[in-house]
DNA sequence: ATCTCCGGGTGACAAGTGTCACCCAAGGGC
DNA sequence: GCCCTTGGGTGACACTTGTCACCCGGAGAT
């Protein structure tokens, strides 16, 4: 019997997946979590074989949870299950050593099969990921990311400078550099593009 | 037997809901669509009793579909099923005469019940909507919305002016007005806020 | 010990942004 | 006929943005 935890913030989808997986003879959903922090606690307590993990959840993202599980050398395997085929997310997930990365666009019947295959030591990845995203890695340095995040909140160059203890001019240099790395003409486009790719 | 169509772009959720609803004796899922245009065609062809409708879908949003069904005086009832409790969406849905508006955060078991109640002539609305959103109506005029949308794509005042056949100065007046209606300091914040509220 | 790279900084310029006061024409209401 | 609102416009001002050329000091490589 494979013991499963589900971490997913949309109650509807979470409940629906749990009901369906429970119908399978060899699968058992032992716990459900509605956010990342809860998921981590649940896995600690229940020691399931595998966890289906959404990425964008309140309190702690699925990627953070996966990273922390890796740190603690937890036995629980992780299958990321998300809407987004953002290259940045995928890259981070792989580095966190997850066993699977599936898109919510996959048909339901693939789900149980994927879980079984992962339990047999295989890796499961939705094909879109390999094509679309690989090798399109994050061109932004950590500092540039900091700047861009704040710009995304609508902060002005001066405000960003204050938040980051930099000078006003330096911030503008960073932004200028970001714009030409991303090949766009304004902060707004840069923020949109970076968010879209999961580069934050 | 209640005949149901499901319009939802996430295949996983769509499939899961279909399987679960089909387990109920009095419900039958007769069709599934992955985008708005497909949904409209499907409803035309199959004449189901009720349609579960996501909002943010490719090609045509669930709100557009609902509006067009109303225009054609279609018999099919509509239950909106979405992640977003955006006031603007809810308002539009009500105007389009939908019978239900549920959040994907609802537990699964509510779903079948909601469908039955709607078929009995009742209205079904997730409680969050009433509180959070009502009476927080869109403060933007149609023209202001046009301007803000383009600004959201990263267009400059001049570009927006050209797209809308306005003068550069007028565009800036609009933006200035938008900023103080929305009580924010920059276009970026304005775009974020408006998108978040569903005011587009 | 020198060289080069890198994070950070400066100053100047052109263009874009936000604000404000004010203008004009077309309707609507009365 | 008059008043008021509405959509659009102008011009000026101060500030912010984006770009560019160039400077500085510390760390690594050789």
From TrEMBL, chains A, B:
Residues 3-119 form the Response regulatory domain. InterPro entries: CheY-like_superfamily, Sig_transdc_resp-reg_C-effctor, Sig_transdc_resp-reg_receiver, Tscrpt_reg_LuxR_C, WalR-like. The keyword Transcription regulation applies. The keyword Phosphoprotein applies. Residues 133-198 form the HTH luxR-type domain. The modification 4-aspartylphosphate is found at residue 54. Pfam families: GerE (PF00196), Response_reg (PF00072). Signal peptide: none annotated. Keywords: DNA-binding, Phosphoprotein, Transcription, Transcription regulation. SUPFAM superfamilies: C-terminal effector domain of the bipartite response regulators, CheY-like. It comes from the Bacteria. PANTHER family: TRANSCRIPTIONAL REGULATORY PROTEIN DESR, TWO-COMPONENT RESPONSE REGULATOR. This is Two-component system response regulator DesR. It comes from Paenibacillus forsythiae. The lineage of its organism: Bacteria, Bacillati, Bacillota, Bacilli, Bacillales.
């Amino acid at each position: 019997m494979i013991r499963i935890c589900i971490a997913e913030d949309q109650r509807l989808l979470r409940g629906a997946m749990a009901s369906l997986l429970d119908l399978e003879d060899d699968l058992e959903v032992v716990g459900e979590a509605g956010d990342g922090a809860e998921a981590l606690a649940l896995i600690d307590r229940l020691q399931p074989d595998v966890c289906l993990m959404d990425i964008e959840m309140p309190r702690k993202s699925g990627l953070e949870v996966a990273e922390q599980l890796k740190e603690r050398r937890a036995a629980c395997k992780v299958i990321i299950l998300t809407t987004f085929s953002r290259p940045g997310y995928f890259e981070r997930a792989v580095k966190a050593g997850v066993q699977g990365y599936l898109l919510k666009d996959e048909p339901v019947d693939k789900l149980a099969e994927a879980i079984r295959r992962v339990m047999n030591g295989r890796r499961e990845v939705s094909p879109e990921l390999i094509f679309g995203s690989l090798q399109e890695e994050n061109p932004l340095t950590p500092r540039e990311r900091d700047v861009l995040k704040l710009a995304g909140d609508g902060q002005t160059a001066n405000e960003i400078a204050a938040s980051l203890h930099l000078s006003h001019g330096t911030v503008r240099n960073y932004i200028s550099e970001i714009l030409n790395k991303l090949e766009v003409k304004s902060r707004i486009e840069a923020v949109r593009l970076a968010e879209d790719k999961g580069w934050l």
